[in-house]
Specification:
By secondary structure, the chain is mainly alpha-helical. It has 14 helices and no strands. It folds into 2 domains: 66 residues, no CATH class; 213 residues, MetI-like (MetI-like fold), CATH 1.10.3720. 70% of the residues lie in helices and 0% in strands. The longest helix is centred in the first third of the chain and has 33 residues.
Length: 288
């Protein structure tokens, strides 16, 4: 009898657990709404007609007369199709080169033993704390000397590889079981073959994560393309959106419409690839 009373006292209150769950979901929903509010306000502004006040308080998220004329006007009066192509090409090439070069640099730093490995790793990681503004001028001078100004390669040049990408992929390589690498070596696979056929598939979640980060960074980059691009036919979407301020004398509805156009591909990419950002079953394939 006493044991039964003790169990009842120690057992959690189901009503208290339900209240905690409701409070947790409420707080998380409030934080999510707070984070999404700027995006919702931007979308609302892009759908408002010229007769509506976009700066009223409290802000009205649902337009009284929703219209797509802002998007149509922006697309017809500016070469947004060209901007979209330029941004897509630059982002895809930047992601591709970043993944290849970072993986090639990270693999020996993670799996091979050679003199000075730790010193090289420390030197690479230490560059993360250096702001881009410090190296911006030397990079610009080098880009001009190489004849890459006003070219796609000139925009891609600073993003061919990154210290963050090398560090991220190195940590992912370290998590791959050594048994897979040893089995491939016994079968006569070369180091390059191990890197491509064994290691790269094993760290797919890290590759997807790095690809998303690099894509977003390249897609939203404004400062570097502004420096190296003078010809409008090479403009990216951020430069095209900034150009709307001068074209339409700072009509925020049209600027918001252009911003929404530039955001949609990034959201689509994230929704498409988020299912791949999960741990692989590489470790479960090793029995011991």
């Amino acid at each position: 009898m006493n044991d039964l009373k003790t169990k009842k006292l120690n057992s959690p209150n189901p009503h208290l657990g339900g209240l905690k769950k409701v409070a947790t979901y409420g707080i998380m929903s409030a934080i999510a709404l707070l984070m999404l509010f700027p995006l919702l306000w931007l979308l609302s502004t892009s759908l408002k007609s010229p007769t509506e006040n976009i700066f009223q308080f409290p802000p009205q998220l649902w337009p009284q007369q929703p219209t797509l004329q802002n998007f149509i006007k922006v697309w017809q009066t500016n070469p947004f199709g060209r901007y979209l192509f330029n941004s897509t090409l630059i982002a895809v090439l930047t992601v591709s080169t970043n993944i290849i070069f970072c993986a090639l640099a990270a693999y020996p730093l993670a799996r091979l033993n050679f003199r000075g490995r730790e010193a090289i790793l420390t030197a690479v990681i230490s560059t993360i704390v250096i702001p881009f503004q410090i190296v911006m001028i030397p990079l610009y001078v080098l880009t001009v000397q190489l004849g890459l100004k006003n070219s796609y390669l000139g925009v891609i040049f600073p993003g061919l590889a990154s210290a963050f990408g090398i560090f991220l992929l190195r940590q992912a390589f370290l998590a791959v079981p050594k048994e897979l690498e040893e089995a491939a070596r016994i079968d006569g696979c070369t180091e390059l073959g191990i890197w491509w056929h064994i290691m790269m598939p094993a760290i797919r979640p890290a590759l997807v994560t790095l690809g998303i980060f690099v894509f977003i960074g390249s897609w939203s980059d404004f400062l570097w393309p502004l420096l190296v691009l003078d010809r409008p036919e090479y403009y990216t979407l951020p430069l095209g959106v900034a150009n709307l301020a001068g074209t339409f004398s700072l009509d925020w509805r049209l600027v918001a419409a252009g911003s929404i156009i530039s955001i949609i591909p990034v959201l689509g990419l994230f929704l498409l690839l988020q299912k791949y950002i999960v741990p692989t079953e590489t470790a479960t394939g090793v029995k011991g």
